Each structure stands twice: as structure tokens, then as C-alpha cells.
Amino acid sequence: MLEKTCLECGEKVVGRIDKKYCSDHCRNSYNNRMNKDTKNLLRNINNKLRKNYRILSGHPLKDGKTTTTKMRLMDKGFDFEYFTNLYTTKKGNTYYFLYDFGYLPLENDRYMIVKRE
């Protein structure tokens, strides 16, 4: 019978035949080490998306929409490069969405903020 060793620390693994780690600590350490390179990139992008979402959702809506200026959004730290999806209407208007909140660029650096129902 083949003796299995922990992928993280090399200790003997006891238990199920498909077990790879000797403890939860080793399993977590191994996975954190393996995902370290992409984790920072993903964390930074998700933080920017989350911040943009909080900024949009912080605007009081009337009938599911409101308007604001580009400067007000930028003053709160809004980053226009980060959004989750685009929606183009039949008229050709492109809405930039962060999950269920979106914005539409208007004239004179104004933006309409909408909430998708």
C-alpha cells in the first residue's frame, strides 16, 4: 500500500484514500500559495467594482433613475474603466452596468444612473 504525504508539509496523510492534506491549515496554506499570483489582481478588480457599485447605489433614485455629473462621480472615487457589462438599446445608447446599477453618458459631462429591475 502506498503511503500518501501532505502536498503542503510532507507529513503522512491519514484518512480517506483521496485525501491530499494532513490538516485544514495545510490545505488552506497550499491553496493560498497556489492562487497568490491571480488573487491580488482579482482582489483589486473586485474592490474597484465594489466601490463603483457603492457609489452608484448611493444615489437616490426617482422612478428608477437619476442624473449626476462626471465630477461628482469622480470626487467619490468612481473609476469609469471598471464595469461588469454593457447594454446597447435599439436607439444605440450604451449603458455601462455594475451588476444591477448602470449609467448612461449624457451631454455636458452628465450621467443618468439607472437601476435594472
Description of the molecule:
- This is DUF2116 family Zn-ribbon domain-containing protein.
- It comes from Flagellimonas meridianipacifica.
- A hairpin with a 2-residue loop joins strand 3 (94-98) and strand 4 (101-105).
- This protein is of the alpha+beta class and 117 residues long.
- The protein has a domain at 37-115.
- It has a 5-stranded antiparallel beta sheet with strand order 1-5-4-3-2.
- The protein has helices spanning 24-34, 36-57, 70-75, and strands spanning 65-69, 85-88, 94-98, 101-105, 110-115.
- The termini are far apart.
Poorly predicted spans: none
State the major sheet: 5 strands, antiparallel
Number of helices: 3
Shape: elongated
Report, as a whole number of angstroms, the end-to-end distance.
Answer: 59 Å
Q: Give the strand order, joined by hyphens, for the main sheet.
A: 1-5-4-3-2
- By helix and strand content, what is the structural category? alpha+beta
Assign a percent range to the helix content.
25-40%
- What quaternary form is this? single chain
Sheet-strand content, in percent, reads: 15-25%
Give the overall pLDDT as a whole number: 93
The radius of gyration over CA amounts to 23 Å
SS elements, strand count: 5
Order of helices and strands: HHEHEEEE
Protein name: DUF2116 family Zn-ribbon domain-containing protein
Organism: Flagellimonas meridianipacifica
